Amino acid sequence: MDVAVPAGEITSIIGPNGCGKSTLLKALSRTMPLRGGAVYLDGRAIAEMPTAEVARRMALLPQSPQAPAGLTVGELVALGRYPHQKGFGRLTDDDKRIIDWALSITHLGDFAARPIDALSGGQRQRAWIAMALAQDTGLILLDEPTTYLDMAHQLEVLELLQTLNRDQGKTIALVIHELNLAARFSDWMIALKSGAIRGAGTPAEVMTPALLREVFGLDALIAPDPWTARPSLVSYRLAGEE
């Protein structure tokens, strides 16, 4: 497999269950050992980079992360500063400034003292994103950040990621199942099936009836979204159904 995540853009990784989306993200983030090949970050093999350096340059939000009971939003976000801490691990003024920024940009400043368990689904996901932001990395990887969220909270999370990309220049790659949201918010899409890349390109190049039939086994009706002009999945059925 040869795959690239374009710098400064939002990349969505799509495909059916079990096709290797999460495995690809784990390989890119060095949380799973490779059987062969290499992953490069800005031209350097990450296998040869110290762990702390990788953590200062790349943040990973895994699927369905769990926080210890009673942990507050502020405490969770502060964990993002761990790769930058030295000595006795005390938070510096710079650490506190970045934590405050991460809480502010995710609209969680008023929730810093609230336990994670007391948050709504969308708020909880924003708290985890805030922790990733506190790492202050140029690259953020997210594994299904919209899973289990209702439509409003899905938009809330993806609009936040879009803002981070546009205003902060963050490179973002995420695994996502909602094809219309992937097409709406992504600059680049990667389609996987059975551990292989079946398509990579802009949403217009990937969201085609032919590729969706190959990857998902669906006959799909695609039309431009009237608000965004991005390709949108209007209707679909199993391939071959009459």
UniProtKB/TrEMBL annotation:
It is a peripheral membrane protein. Residues 1-219 form the ABC transporter domain. Signal peptide: none annotated. CDD domains: ABC_Iron-Siderophores_B12_Hemin. Keywords: ATP-binding, Cell membrane, Ion transport, Iron, Iron transport, Membrane, Nucleotide-binding, Transport. It is found in: Cell membrane. GO terms for biological process: iron ion transport. It comes from the Bacteria. InterPro entries: AAA+_ATPase, ABC_transporter-like_ATP-bd, ABC_transporter-like_CS, P-loop_NTPase, Siderophore_ABC-ATPase. GO terms for molecular function: ATP binding; ATP hydrolysis activity. GO terms for cellular component: plasma membrane. This is ABC transporter ATP-binding protein. The lineage of its organism: Bacteria, Bacillati, Actinomycetota, Coriobacteriia, Eggerthellales.
